[in-house]
TrEMBL record:
Keywords: Cell membrane, Membrane, Protein transport, Translocation, Transmembrane, Transmembrane helix, Transport. This is Protein translocase subunit SecY. Gene3D superfamilies: SecY subunit domain. PANTHER family: SECY/SEC61-ALPHA FAMILY MEMBER. Belongs to the SecY/SEC61-alpha family. The chain crosses the membrane at residues 18-36, 68-95, 116-134, 154-175, 187-207, 213-232, 317-337, 372-394, 400-418.
Amino acid sequence: MFKAIGRIFRTPDLQRKIWFTLGIIAIYRLGAFIPSPGVDYGNVQMCLAAGNASGGLYSFVNMFSGGALLQVSIFALGIMPYITASIIVQLLRVVIPRFEQLHQEGPQGQAKLTQYTRYLTLALALLQSTTMASLARTGALLSCQLPLLVDDSIVTVLMVVLVLTTGTVLVMWMGEQITERGVGNGMSLLIFASIAAGFPSGIGQVWQTQGVRTFLIVMVIGLLTMLAVVFVEESQRRVPVQYAKRQIGSRTLSGHSTFIPIKVNMAGVIPVIFASSVLTLPGILVQFNTPQDGSNPPAWVTFLAEYFTGGDHPVYMALYLLMIVGFTYFYVSITFNPKEISDNMKRYGGFIPGVRAGRPTERYLEYVISRITFPGALYLGVVAMIPLIAFVLINANQNFPFGGTSILIMVGVGLQTVKQINAQMEQRHYEGLLR
């Protein structure tokens, strides 16, 4: 293993890409600690010391920004606007036929969709930065009733909006530079770096608050969880496909066999993000509808606060699990098109042994997808529930490192990055990084 790592740094081209990637990630992490101009950093630290800004929406968004949100830094919005824009553009393929046509046009169409994603990212960043600056102006951002801006003038607010929006655009640009000139998917690696930055503090808090025994148990469970995630993420159902002998002009192409790889978890981490985002809405409603004068809130606000804001209530857990399963089926249904695959197989003379081409093949693929998606959805739900269960059993905070969105993203990005490095190693050596 160490010899393989040594070969990476003895390959000039690959070495240059890795150092470029690490340099961009270092700049990204540095920006997470640079306060935005116009922000009263002293008041921000006082609000963080009070501990009011934890859990719910703050915990979810702060995880993707690598702690930049609660620091109100220049990269406070992080990569979240781009993630949201990418998901929206992908879902719009079902609604807007033009987007589906662009998706099927190959690289040129993908480039156009990428451009639309950039424009939408800019719009979302502008909207979110305006909301964030307005909340910081009144002190409601970190729930401590202290103004987080040096003054409440419109010039200061506009400057904060401009800086936060520009920071998001810069993060998007850095991610694209890693994809083009570095190793791996740039956006995914930036998310990986943001989540990994919170692991030491999360593990350290378990050590300090729960003791060595609980710490060791958590570490063992964490390692077993990562092994399980790696096993499931690499698991796939291989549907055999046979291609008949074809005559193209004067050439005769012999028949060959291949397979369609259908992963157990085809939806990735998207259903968990969907479910987490939807379940943060009750917390937002509670926050904005709770009276500030100490009077009793309305009955519906009390109901939401009791069942949907803590994360440790059985109703919340059950709804979270059901939403992840539902979103998994929904996302797989719009990303995997059995009819398109069946038509392509029929066009090139391919067929599944024992299944007729055309509509029977489509129905067979639908059957396989429905069967394999169920264990994949349950797997996502169980992994996503680990932080909630830990919150109940050992009184962990919402940033519990092992489980949920964090572990799924880190393991998935790590596997894909290692595979890309291995592929580049095999292009230059007979032996790759993996065996």
